[in-house]
Amino acid sequence: MSLLRTATTKLFVLDTNVLMHDPSSLFRFEEHDVYLPMVTLEELDNHKKGMTEVARNARQASRNLEQIVGASLDKLENGSPLGINGNTFVTGRLFLQTAAVSVELPMLAGGKADNQILSVVADLQKQCPQRQVILVSKDINIRIKARAIGAPAEDYFNDQVLEDTDLLYTGIRELPEDFWEKHSKDIESWQEAGRMYYRVTGPICKSLLINEFVYYEYDKPFHAIVRNVKGNIAVLEVVKDYMQPKHSVWGITARNREQNFALNLLMDPEVDFVTLLGQAGTGKTLLTLASALTQTLDKKIYSEIIMTRVTVPVGEDIGFLPGTEEEKMAPWMGALEDNLDVLNKSDDDAGEWGRAATQDLIRTRIKIKSLNFMRGRTFLHKFLIIDEAQNLTPKQMKTLITRAGPGTKVVCLGNIAQIDTPYLTEGSSGLTYVVDRFKGWEHNGHVTLIRGERSRLADFAAEAL
C-alpha cells in the first residue's frame, strides 16, 4: 500500500483553499487518493483563528484530518483510508507528505507556499510516472503555473450545482404547436372554486414539474400552472390574469407573461417558497412588495413584512454606520424606498393626507433586518423577502429559509449575473442552489423574468452595454 497503489485511480493534490472552501472535500473523491503537502497543513494552521467562515472551515478540515489519520492503523506512508464513520462510498486513501521534496523548480521562487505545492506535484509525477497526479485548487493563478510546468490542474467543482447556468430551471415551458392534437384524447375539464382545471394525457406530461407554468401562444392562447403529475397524466390550472386592471395587486398590474406568472405564485397562499430571477428592471421587488402589502394589510394573511439583504457593497465599503439595526440597514434599502414610492403613487384618489397615512401604515408593517442576527429566530405568519439573494452561499441560504415557522412565506429575489461576492460564481451561488433543489416541490414556485419594464433607457443599456 503505497503511492504506487494502482494506475487506474488518480492522485489528487489538494491546495489549502479547497479545504477552507469545503472542509468535507476530503470525502468527495470517491475511489481516488488524496495527497496533502505539508505547506497545506501549515496554511490551515495559520487560518484557524477567528470567527470568520474561513476560520470555521479551517478548524473543521483539521478535525476531519485528525479523524482520518487517527482511525488508521497503518504507517502514514501507506496512506489512511478515507472511508471513516461507515462511509463506504469513499474507497480512496489520504497521504500526507512525510519526506522532503527532491525536485526543485528554479524558475519559481522557492519560499512561496504555492510554489512549494507545485514542487510536490512535480516530485509526485516523478515518483509515480504511471499514475495521473492532478492538482486541485480554487486559485486560478496556481492552476496556470501548474500547466506551465506540465502538471494537470483542475478547479474544485463539487460545490457547483450546475456547470452551465443556461440549464437552470426557468419555471416556464412553452407548449409545442401540436400540443392539443397529441394531448386532447382523454381530456377532462372542470371548475372548482372559480378556477378552471384540465386533466391532459400525453408524452409531455412526464417531463412536467409541479407548479411549473406552461403556455401555448398559437391560435388560442393558453396560460396554466401544473398542479399534479402522475406518469403521463397532468392536471393543469388556468392562471389568473393579473394583466387586467380589475385584478390589480395594490394598484400594480402585470406587464408581461412572466410577471403574470410571478404574481400567481406570490398571491398563492399554498406556495410557501418563491424564487424570482431576472436582470435589473424586470420588476422582481415591485411585484413582491405589492403582493406582500395586499396580503398583509388587506387580506391579513401575514402579520408583517420582513425584508433582508446581504450587505455587500459594489464599490469600496463606506465604514461603520451609526444608529439602530434599521438605521444601519437604511443605505442598503434604497430599492425598498424606490418601490414604495411607486406603490404609493398608485393611490391617487386618497389625496395628500391619505397617501401620507398609507405611507405611515406601510412603514409600521415593514421591518428591515440584518442577516447577521438571523440565527435561532423563528418567523410566524410573516412575509419574508430576501433581496439580492445571489450573494448568499448555499449555507447562508439554508440558515435563512429554515427560519420560517408556520404560516410564513419566503421569497428570494436576485440576478445571478450580478454577483458582488468575490468567492461565489453563478454555478455555486445559494440562489442557483435553492432553485435547483426546490424545483418540483408542491409548495415551491420559480419564475425567471426576462423582459425589463423599467424604461426604454434601462432596457437599451441592459442590451447594449
From TrEMBL:
Start and end residues of each PIN domain: 10-144
> In the record, what terms sit under GO molecular function?
ATP binding
The record's listing under InterPro entries reads: P-loop_NTPase, PhoH, PhoH2-like, PIN-like_dom_sf, PIN_dom
What lineage is this protein's organism placed in?
Answer: Bacteria, Pseudomonadati, Pseudomonadota, Betaproteobacteria, Nitrosomonadales
Q: Please give the family membership noted in the entry.
A: Belongs to the PhoH family. In the N-terminal section; belongs to the PINc/VapC protein family.
Entry keywords, A to Z: ATP-binding, Nucleotide-binding
Q: Name one GO cellular component term.
A: cytosol
Q: Which CDD domains match?
A: PIN_VapC_PhoHL-ATPase
Species name for this entry?
Pseudomethylobacillus aquaticus
Does the keyword Nucleotide-binding feature in the UniProt annotation? Answer: yes
Query: What SMART domains does this protein map onto?
Result: PINc
Name of protein: PhoH family protein
